[in-house]
Automatic annotation (TrEMBL):
The keyword ATP-binding does not apply. The lineage of its organism: Eukaryota, Viridiplantae, Streptophyta, Embryophyta, Tracheophyta. PROSITE patterns: EF_HAND_1 (PS00018), EF_HAND_2 (PS50222). It comes from Daucus carota subsp. sativus (Carrot). This is EF-hand domain-containing protein. The keyword Transcription regulation does not apply. GO terms for molecular function: calcium ion binding. Residues 26-61, 92-127 form the EF-hand domain. It comes from the Eukaryota. PANTHER family: CALCIUM-BINDING PROTEIN CML48-RELATED (PTHR46824), CALCIUM-BINDING PROTEIN CML49-RELATED (PTHR46824:SF1). It holds the Pfam family EF-hand_7.
Length: 197
């Protein structure tokens, strides 16, 4: 059966290393200071432990799964480290998602329910079927869907998953018709980074 799903040599390696980066011009000095504080060894990169610590110092605890997904999203690799440019983009991206989450968490409970999640996802430009929304709630609700609500860190994970998979699908759906053809390897390379983050 090995011949049915041939290896494709033309794929970019999602597990490749990173090229050192610099802070974008005009980066807020507090972002630079936060990165430098997290970069304890002065390597010019911060790893997943350092990133989790840096994000947690901003009054938000993120699981390693969320940290890894953030790192993948902002580097397009599973290198488990980010440089100054990626950190800056991540920092500002989190501010955007925090504002979006808070606009739907009107009772300030720290959670948004299924209907609020649907509206939040729609406001980001994604229209998903009720079946997909139910799967998202059961996947990202820390209680397996029992509370029918998700917290901020899981909201980030949910948004990154929807955004990332949608972008990967659009790469194959060049006609934007809602259909795409994937080889087995293409499918695995598309989905696995979101499963093993």
């Amino acid at each position: 059966m090995a011949g049915v799903y041939p290896a494709q040599a033309s794929h970019a390696n999602p597990f490749a290393g990173l090229i050192p980066s610099t802070f974008p011009p005009g980066t807020d000095p507090s972002v630079v200071a936060c990165f430098q504080l997290a970069d304890a060894d002065g390597s010019g990169f911060i790893d997943d432990v350092e990133l989790q610590r840096a994000l947690s110092s901003c009054d938000q605890n993120f699981s390693f799964r969320t940290v890894h997904l953030l790192m993948y999203h902002f580097t397009n690799s599973n290198a488990r480290k980010i440089g100054p440019r990626e950190f800056t983009e991540l920092f500002y991206g989190l501010q955007h998602w925090r504002a979006k989450f808070e606009s739907f968490d009107q009772d300030r409970s720290g959670k948004i329910d299924a209907s609020e999640l649907r509206e939040a996802i729609r406001s980001l430009g994604y229209v998903l079927s009720p079946v997909v929304m139910d799967l998202l709630i059961s996947k990202f609700d820390k209680y397996g869907g029992a509370s029918q609500a998700i917290e901020y860190d899981n909201f980030i994970e949910c948004c990154l998953t929807v955004k990332g998979l949608t972008e990967k699908f659009k790469e194959k759906d060049s006609a934007l018709c809602g259909w795409a053809s994937f080889s087995y390897e293409d499918f695995m390379l598309t989905v696995l980074p979101f499963l093993i983050a």
